[in-house]
Design brief:
alpha/beta; Glutaredoxin; 5-stranded mixed sheet; two-stranded antiparallel ribbon; 4 helices; about 25% strand
């Protein structure tokens, strides 16, 4: 069952493509974090990452963004470069330690973990309304005015299931 809103975020440690270990809550130091579970073969993930990249550019400080790949590093690295991901890509395959704890129902699945280490928001698939809510929540946590990162009419669908 997916980790529900209000639940304490499960602890995990994963190795990233940059060779560093990242752990929740160890590496958050009281900051919120967005965790994005994805697969390299997921077309809905391809649609999502440009907006997440925009989210990172819009709010550059005061929070963490981790892409958690359900594929091995040999597949995740080229995908991350192609998708323009310049934030940590954590490798969850082959054991799926974090995926088993968070139980994402589809890829992509996004969790916002608040500074209190509780799941504040989650969504799966692709929905511009959810991305804009995520952006508003990150803005509130970082003290930056909310920005619409996923405008309607930008040539991409407003919704796509994962």
């Amino acid at each position: 069952m997916i980790l529900e809103t209000g639940a304490l975020a499960s602890h995990f440690t994963l190795l990233a493509l940059d060779g560093r270990e990242y752990g929740l809550p160890r590496d958050l130091a009281g900051r919120p974090a967005v965790l994005v579970f994805f697969k390299t073969t997921c077309p809905t993930c391809d649609l999502l990452f440009p907006y997440l990249n925009r989210l990172r550019q819009t709010y550059p400080e005061g929070w963490e963004l981790w892409a958690i790949s359900q594929d091995v590093a040999d597949r995740s690295g080229p995908y991350a470069r192609g998708a323009g991901i310049d934030y940590p890509v954590l490798i969850d395959a082959p054991g799926y330690h974090a995926s088993k704890l968070y139980d994402p129902p589809a890829t992509p699945t996004v969790f916002l973990v608040g500074p209190d280490r509780r799941v504040e928001f989650s969504t799966y698939g692709f929905a511009k309304t959810d991305l804009n809510e995520l952006a508003a929540r990150v803005g509130k946590h970082t003290g930056v005015e909310p920005v619409v990162i996923a405008p309607q009419g930008d040539g991409r669908p407003d919704f796509k299931p994962g």
